[in-house]
Hints:
By secondary structure, the chain is of the alpha/beta class. It contains 17 helices and 13 strands.
Amino acid sequence: MRRGVSLLLILTMMLSLGLFAHAEEKVTIECYTVKTENLEAWEEIESRFEALYPNVDIELITLEFSSGSSEFLTSRIAANNLPDLLQISQSPTFRTLINEGKIRDLRDFACAENIPQTYKDLLTYNGVLFGLAQGAAFATMYYNMDILASAGWDRIPENWEELLQCCADIAEKTDAAPIVTSGQHHTLIHFLVDLTVANTCGDELGVGQYEELFKAGKFDFTAYPAIEEKLAAIAPYFITGAASMIEDDCATTMADGLAAMCLAGNWTAASVCDAIAESTGDESKVAASLPPFNEAGKQVWVSVAPEDGFGITVSDSRSAAEQEMIDVFFEWLYQPENFRLIQNSSGSVPVLTTMTEDQIVLPKPIVPVVAPMNAAPSVLMGFNIWTAEYDDIANKQLCDLLSGNTTADVVVKALWEAEQKYPVNAN
């Protein structure tokens, strides 16, 4: 039997027998987070858990993300006095802690089975599952169904061929631009690379292979003609001026009815969906989906990034009973009725597959996208693997492409040359 499952059985038995209520040993569990928006949720979590286990004190350490938070963690590392639970990230700090054996491997926890493999892969380093994601950030396409209807579409496009045809029909039959995005929000315009590469090469390479090849300077963009073809085909359908737009401009453009579709992130759901509802006067005219960059008959790939979740540190000073209680708390925290408190307070999209729709607080149009997103194969958003130098080059090239100042073949060549000039593994 897996250790995590055993813990839950032990937890159930101990609770039924009231053993924790009578335990003499006081246990303090330190939890460190930079998510200051979750404070009220953590107060409720503390209250719930401490009511079950009066011998346990949940102590929350919250520092807003800044140099101060980095200094705090550095000082605790130096003192060999890490908090029991850490909000995790993909920073070099965590890689160092993993290499030093100071972060627990979470693969045997029962709750890990309820996290999609994609997000476990993204938070695995040197074979260690060092954290369980809190939620997901992912590329999303939003639709003004009034404009689509004017172009002869009573449904959203389901694949690349339909997307291009829908764009052509919108351009021909309406006064709206087919698609808006933000060139000044690097992540949004980078979706063009992420989604094109994933839906061109993903099935051939397999999950995680593009990222590994890229970081090794071995992913040759020019070796896949379909990448250039797709970029060339979709670029003309973006609204004039997209390259200079900020993220807020996406919502404004949709509110003004100037674009039929919006390529953005799930984090823009509230503003963009509200904007479409305002434009149409009807919430039912708002729709969302994973961007349909997939070929007909093939699965859609998506660009994702894991939202920060939690990992468990290793401590030589903890007794076996204390460590067991930390494990019990971690399992308890990742149960849907408890974890939804954090999830809903942050507004991130849950990756915990055991959460039901009624437990998820999200803009209505995005809710049906959650399950397909969790099930879809994915690539990691560019900002998670690109160097700063590569990021600057890619952004300029893509902005020039949307502005009509360069061509797709030049962009693809530039991406390949920059990858070799600024290799990730050199940093």
